[in-house]
């Protein structure tokens, strides 16, 4: 018998199909993704907490402790920065994926704070990727120095060291969790090399290297039981039929590629970051839920076409308690900008939407919605990549009547005032994406599920 390349391929393919005949079917559409559709602070944490009830695993795929998610349970407020918001659900395993950059002191402080508030049973339910990169205190110092160097052109970063950590990753002198858990002498060499490179750039940097290394020797023992190869783990769990929920940190307009660059974060917080940040193939993604605040906010600098500098903007800020969870900075507020949401829907492919904070509009007699941009008097059919162009666009609005009553206790769509339903329908009609959930209050129970 003559063996040919074709016969070998046929034999191998046949053996593969016999050993895992239904793998493709088992893996497909098992992952639900929750992404912010604006500049962040849309209330993703609350949505993830809601969906975690029907999930087995909740994952973070990118970002660091520059993100802030608030979840209110039984009147208690839990703040999450590195931990997936679904960790509050004791039946869920929480995964911090390879695309996340982790500040270990911040992680353990976050665990302690939330446990003191009543969060229970985290031991054994938190899994951390060995491929995730570490954020060190020196990254945070460098972040602050880089911002100071920019002067009036500063970006308004959180100074949490996220940008420098991702930069180190890209220039291949970053340090991963797996390095910390391996031969500590090699970790020490890498750490000293990293510090030396930053000191050459910023001679004024002050750091007690020996003290930092001593701290990280202790952190290695603390974090070791939580660490595993999350790529194999997730594929195995999804293949066995477990439901996975992915929580994107930050939001699409802060994406390093598609956001309002350079006023962005340093990771891909759009759908692509889910795949690269967890090691998942596209065919496992099922529903992509875009979280949209009923108006628009952003923290930090950068163009904001629908921003309000009047009493209405102040009213939205006060009624919405618009203060950053991570930075405590007051958020800038403006009308809902559907040009922004349509653009992020193109990038992310939302299958449905969650409209949050609709109740904040309760007292307004008239509500405006941005539906088009004009540049130099002409309507444009694209979202500008140039911040100069975006700063100069003229927004075209539609006006809708307000409902002028409280909707905080409404739990069914048909019990909403007609004007509120019209507002939701206007959003659906413009975006051609259905609204599946409507947030009308702070607590996890304050959500209307739309059939």
UniProtKB/TrEMBL annotation:
Binding annotation for Mg(2+): 41, 68
- Read off the CDD domains from this record: AdSS
- Annotated cofactor note: Binds 1 Mg(2+) ion per subunit.
The protein's annotated pathway: Purine metabolism; AMP biosynthesis via de novo pathway; AMP from IMP: step 1/2
Binding positions (substrate): 325-331
Q: What class of enzyme is it?
A: ligase
- Which sites are catalytic? 41 (proton acceptor), 69 (proton donor), 169
Q: Does the keyword GTP-binding apply?
A: yes
* HAMAP family assigned to the protein according to its UniProt record, in alphabetical order: Adenylosucc_synth (MF_00011)
- Major location, coarse class? cytoplasm
Q: Which InterPro entries match?
A: Adenylosuccin_syn_GTP-bd (IPR018220), Adenylosuccin_syn_Lys_AS (IPR033128), Adenylosuccinate_synth_dom1 (IPR042109), Adenylosuccinate_synth_dom2 (IPR042110), Adenylosuccinate_synth_dom3 (IPR042111), Adenylosuccinate_synthetase (IPR001114), P-loop_NTPase (IPR027417)
In this chain, IMP is annotated as bound at 41-44, 66-69, 158, 172, 250, 265, 329
E.C. number(s) listed in UniProt? 6.3.4.4
Q: Which residues form the signal peptide?
A: none
**A GO CC term?**
cytoplasm
Q: Where in the cell is it found?
A: Cytoplasm
- Keyword vocabulary terms for this entry: Cytoplasm, GTP-binding, Ligase, Magnesium, Metal-binding, Nucleotide-binding, Purine biosynthesis
One biological process GO term for this chain?
'de novo' AMP biosynthetic process
Carries keyword Metal-binding?
yes
What's the protein called, per UniProt? Answer: Adenylosuccinate synthetase
- How does this protein assemble? Homodimer.
Role played: Plays an important role in the de novo pathway and in the salvage pathway of purine nucleotide biosynthesis. Catalyzes the first commited step in the biosynthesis of AMP from IMP. Plays an important role in the de novo pathway of purine nucleotide biosynthesis.
Gene3D superfamilies reported in the protein's UniProt record: Adenylosuccinate Synthetase, subunit A, domain 1, Adenylosuccinate Synthetase, subunit A, domain 2, Adenylosuccinate Synthetase, subunit A, domain 3
List the PANTHER family hit by this protein, alphabetically.
ADENYLOSUCCINATE SYNTHETASE (PTHR11846:SF0)
């Amino acid at each position: 018998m003559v063996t040919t390349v074709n016969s070998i391929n046929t034999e191998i393919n046949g053996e593969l199909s016999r050993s895992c005949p239904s793998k493709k079917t088992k893996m497909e559409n098992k992952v639900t993704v929750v992404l912010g559709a604006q500049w962040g602070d849309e209330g993703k944490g609350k949505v993830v907490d809601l969906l975690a009830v029907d999930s087995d695993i909740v994952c973070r795929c990118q970002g660091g402790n520059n993100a802030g998610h608030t979840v209110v349970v039984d009147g208690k407020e839990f703040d999450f920065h590195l931990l997936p918001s679904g960790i509050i659900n004791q039946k869920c395993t929480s995964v911090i994926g390879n695309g996340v950059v982790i500040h270990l002191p911040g992680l353990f402080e976050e665990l302690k704070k939330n446990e003191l508030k009543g969060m229970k049973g985290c031991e054994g339910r938190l899994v951390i990727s060995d491929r995730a990169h570490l954020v060190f205190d020196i990254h945070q110092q460098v972040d602050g120095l880089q911002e100071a160097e920019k002067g009036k052109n500063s970006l308004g970063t959180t100074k949490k060291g996220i940008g420098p950590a991702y930069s180190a990753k890209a220039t291949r002198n970053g340090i991963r969790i797996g390095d910390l858990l391996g031969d500590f002498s090699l970790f020490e060499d890498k750490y000293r090399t990293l510090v030396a490179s930053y000191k050459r750039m910023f001679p004024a940097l002050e750091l007690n290297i020996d003290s930092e290394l001593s701290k990280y020797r202790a952190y290695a023992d603390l974090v070791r039981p939580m660490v595993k190869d999350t790529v194999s783990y997730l594929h195995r769990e999804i293949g066995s039929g477990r439901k996975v929920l992915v929580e994107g940190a930050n939001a699409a307009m802060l994406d390093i590629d598609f956001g309002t660059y350079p006023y962005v974060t340093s990771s891909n917080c759009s759908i692509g970051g889910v795949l690269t940040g967890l090691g998942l193939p596209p065919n496992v993604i099922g529903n992509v839920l875009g979280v949209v605040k009923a108006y628009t906010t952003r923290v930090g600098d950068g163009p904001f076409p629908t921003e309000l500098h009047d009493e209405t903007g102040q009213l939205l800020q006060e009624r919405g308690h618009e203060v950053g969870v991570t930075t405590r900075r007051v958020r800038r507020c403006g009308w809902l900008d559907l040009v922004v949401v349509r653009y992020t829907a193109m990038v992310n492919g939302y299958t449905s939407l969650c409209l949050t904070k609709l109740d904040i509009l309760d007292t307004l007699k008239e509500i405006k919605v941005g539906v088009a941009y004009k540049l130099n008097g002409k309507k444009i059919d694209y979202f500008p990549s140039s911040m100069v162009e975006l700063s100069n666009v003229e927004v075209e609005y539609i006006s809708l009547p307000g409902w002028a009553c409280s909707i905080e206790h409404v739990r069914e769509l048909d019990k909403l005032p007609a004007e509120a339903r019209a507002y939701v329908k206007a959003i659906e009609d413009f975006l051609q994406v259905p609204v599946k959930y409507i947030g009308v209050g702070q607590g996890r129970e304050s959500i209307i599920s739309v059939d």
